[in-house]
Amino acid sequence: MSFTSAVFALAGLALSAQSGPKLALGAPMPAFALPGVDGKILDSKSFKGPTVVVFLSTQCPYVLASEDRINALAKAYAGRVAFVGINSNESDSERRKEEGLPGMKAHAGRQGYAFPYLKDESQAVVKAFGAVCTPDFYLFDGAGKLVYRGRMDDNTSPKRDAAILSHDLKAALDAVLAGRPVDPDQKPSRGCSIKWKS
Fold first, then answer.
1. Residue 44: DSSP 8-state
2. For residue 188, is the peptide bond before it cis, meaning its omega torsion is within 30 degrees of 0?
């Protein structure tokens, strides 16, 4: 095993989506119908306008450091852009049980999530999107086409107070709402790897 492989095998934490997700810009939102922490099933067909899909975790330090900013962004664009969080991590093992719906519900309640939080138990949805880490962001325009994929901003560390100079997702949201093209120079997200079922 190479040194790099050993580091990732041992840490299993930071992962940069350098190769990019499978879902291409211009592609439609993959269909899904998933259970949420509110006990209801949410269907992707219910989203009629601009929508942000973000893959989340209850345990990843990168998510924990950024979820206040995610929530603030969802509140700032409420009524104009829909936000939805999806947790695709396996939750069968003892160490990942907080990634299941009960743990997600408790976490979302503590954090006051202003958006639906759904569980992708089969991991079919994360595979359809091609997300590789948490958090990972996808913005679809009013026609349901993917126009942005990548990071929220340039604080891609597990530190809440790191300086932020580039608000990438916000810029993409403003472009969509103004009817302008989204900048094609899109930086990948960075975070914890998706925890796949064995």
1. G
2. no
Q: Which residues contact 117 (CB under 8 A, 6 or more apart)?
A: 36, 37, 56, 84, 85, 86, 87, 104, 105, 108
Give one DSSP letter per residue of 92-109, joined into a string: SSGGGGGGSHHHHHHHHH
Report the candidate in 50, 59, 124, 120 with the shortest Cα–Cα distance to residue 85.
120
Strands 146-150 and 136-140: antiparallel
Q: In what order do the strands lie in the sheet with 14-16?
A: 14-16, 190-193, 133-134
pLDDT higher than threshold 50 for residue 177: yes
Listed range (48-52, 97-101, 140-144, 161-165) with the worst mean pLDDT: 161-165
CA distance 111 to 161: 17
d(CA 104, CA 110): 10
Closest residue by Cα to residue 17 from 127, 134, 119, 122 = 134
Does position 172 have pLDDT exceeding 70, yes or no? Answer: yes
Domain boundaries, the chain: 15-193
3-state secondary structure (DSSP) of residue 151 = coil
Instruction: Categorize the per-residue pLDDT at 3 as very low, low, confident or very high, splitting at 50, 70 and 90.
Output: very low
Domain boundaries 15-193, CATH class: alpha beta
pLDDT at 55 over 60: yes
Amino acid, single-letter form, for residue 165? L
